[in-house]
Amino acid sequence: MYFGNAWYPEHWPEERWPEDVRLMRELGMNVCRIAEFAWSTMEPIEGHYRLDWLERAVDLLHRNGIAVVLGTPTAAPPAWLTHRYPETLTILPNGRPMQHGNRCHGSPNSPVFVKYSRLIVEQMAKRFGKDERVIGWQIDNEYGHADYSEEARRQFHAFLKERYGSLEALNEAWATAYWSQSYDSWEEIPLPIGPHNPGLMLDFRRFVTHTWRRFQKVQVDTIRAHARPEQWITSNYMGWYEDFDHYLLAEDLDMVSWDWYIGTGHHDYLTTGALHDLTRGLKRRNFWVMETQPGSVNWASINNVLYRGEARVMAFHAAAHGADALLYWQWRAAPGGQEQLHGCLIGADGKPRPFYEEAKEIGADFAKVAAFTQNTQVKNEVALLHSYDARWAVNFQRHHRDFDPVNYLYQWYRPLASQQIGIDILRPEADLTGYRAVIAPALMVLSEEAIQNLVTYVEQGGVLVLTPRCGQRDIHNRLYPYLQPGPLRAIAGVEVEEYYALDEEVPVRVAFGNALEGRGRIWAERLRPLSDKTEILGHYGVSNGWLDGRPALTWHPHESGGGVLYVGAWLEETLQKALADWLVSKAHLQASYSDVPEGVEVAKRVAPDGSRTLYFVINHTRHSHVLPIGTPLQPPLTDLISGARFEESIPLAPYEVRLFEVKSV
């Protein structure tokens, strides 16, 4: 377990550095990220590199037992670069260039910017690539804006030409006969601004992904040419940020990290659990939290401070979901700049702020459990499928303002997670072997690989859940010439006769377990069974006349023992919970623990060989609870954090965290 911070030694006189590092060690920190915004300090004049100060900072950290992660500084290009070469600035959709100092203002489409980015990274890699004090590299920092420059437009045309081969194929794919959008030359194709042709918009997002991946790979390849094999490479992503396909960018990294901020409000483990699971699913392995807030941020609508003890449960919640490191941003309040008021561990006066004491407790706890968490990982029985193509397509044409595809994913995540059912969030093309249940929320766009993957999964005995807006479009964002769920109609045993964006709720009655009546909201689909084997599990009540008495939920069994549940409506909470209970029973899902009080999480990490399992018991509330001891935890139990022993029950104080190890016989 790594515990650390982001430190900016370039902000401070060098005589101050030893005191900063001493305070880090006092906190139990063992890792530090540096240099990701220090381009102007490392190259103050074009071609004149000054890395000796960075060498001294790395050495000081190392001598104090703190490992170093070096960030490449390309998110903050220096003024000499953007002034001398204005073509390096990203152009906004309104045609205006970003200004120097905006951050992330360099364009990944600019050959000049890419050239100078490679040169500074090469200097760093030559200096520190063989350095055992440096354990890893972070590429750039939070990739951001799309570029709307003429250079980007030329590259977009080249991207489309390679993708389609001919304008005839492109026109067919995008259905450009509509509104006389047909193109006679590649140069006629615009960069989409605002609502546009759905095929054009989807391919532009893919182009942005291609651009950032290419920019990232230039740096990855430059580092690997000089680095020792043990140095890993990552980049810090931002949860649900949707401007590019994170699955594709993650392919070129050794591991993924992400920056976790609450902003306004407080921690909700049923929300952030999904963010951790998304990040872990990008490469299906453990990850790092490269940045998280030490109390508060400066950019939210209300920059409130976390409750005392809240950061501690957040730290262990991240670890329980596969994080092997947690670093706070930032170490000390910067004297100037846009983030002066951001939370930090050390104040402007150079002395610890109140949060420092809580961080010290977290550091001590991490040190106690590090040996136990080593070589463990998260392993789950449920996969939630998440596709950037589908998200983009829905968001381009929501048809109902409240149909947010991420919120709909949470509609499925939260009732399962609250029952202590672990979940992996994967792309639809991922290997689904071993999952008892797979849920595909609003999977509007289907690739051929995804289609075959889902069909194979059901044919091999899996339980697949399809939902509203599944299987409507192909990879070009073009409607299939048959009804939803498109190519999955055969295995689903049902098709969607019509869909309805709801301006008022509709009654829904389900017929599994104890019959329940509830409501559907936002979206409803009128279903038509296609097979005598298709079972109707729910009907609509009297509403708009079109849905009255029609099937709302169906189950189509497969001879393999699996089958497909089709859910035609966005259900309110009570019905959604009942549906989650049905799925738990149908797919024989195993909770990590039973009889868990509301607001308490029991999550687990396991050794790859199954020889031992770690159980994280986390009270996410400000109230005391008691967890009865039962299978799989057997008394006597020893908490690896506090050393306390328990025989019959586990008391949990507000924001209490306990960790237990169970070894297989």
Strand content: 15-25%
Rounded mean pLDDT score: 96
The rounded Rg comes to: 26 Å
Number of separate helices: 17
Largest sheet: 11 strands, mixed
The termini sit apart by: 26 Å
Helix residue percentage: 25-40%
The tally of beta strands, per DSSP, is 27
The shape is globular
Supply the helix-strand structural class: alpha/beta
Uncertain spans: none
Care to give the gist of this entry?
It is built from 17 helices and 27 strands. With 665 residues, the protein is α/β, with parallel strands linked by helices. The relative contact order is 0.08.
Q: What do you see in this structure?
A:
With 665 residues, the chain is of the alpha/beta class. The strands form five sheets. Strands 10, 11, 12, 13, 14, 15, 16, 17, 18, 19 and 20 form an eleven-stranded mixed beta sheet that branches. The chain has a nine-stranded parallel beta sheet with strand order 5-4-3-2-1-9-8-7-6. It has a three-stranded antiparallel beta sheet with strand order 21-22-27, with helices on one face. Helix 8 runs antiparallel to helix 13 (388-396) and helix 10 packs across helix 14. It is globular. The model has no long low-confidence stretch (mean pLDDT 96).
Task: From the structure above, extract its key features.
globular, 17 helices, 11-stranded mixed beta sheet, 9-stranded parallel beta sheet, alpha/beta
Topology:
Blueprint: E1 2-6, H1 17-26, E2 31-34, H2 39-42, H3 52-63, E3 67-71, H4 79-84, H5 111-128, E4 134-138, H6 150-164, H7 167-174, H8 198-224, E5 232-234, E6 236-237, H9 246-250, E7 257-260, H10 269-283, E8 287-292, H11 310-320, E9 323-328, H12 355-373, E10 382-385, H13 388-396, H14 405-417, E11 423-426, E12 437-440, H15 448-459, E13 463-466, H16 489-492, E14 494-501, E15 506-510, E16 516-529, E17 535-540, E18 551-557, E19 563-567, E20 569-571, H17 573-586, E21 600-606, E22 612-619, E23 625-628, E24 637-638, E25 645-646, E26 649-652, E27 657-663
Parallel strand pairs: 1-2, 1-9, 2-3, 3-4, 4-5, 6-7, 7-8, 8-9, 10-11, 10-12, 12-13, 13-19
Antiparallel strand pairs: 14-16, 15-16, 15-17, 16-20, 17-18, 18-19, 21-22, 22-27, 23-26, 24-25
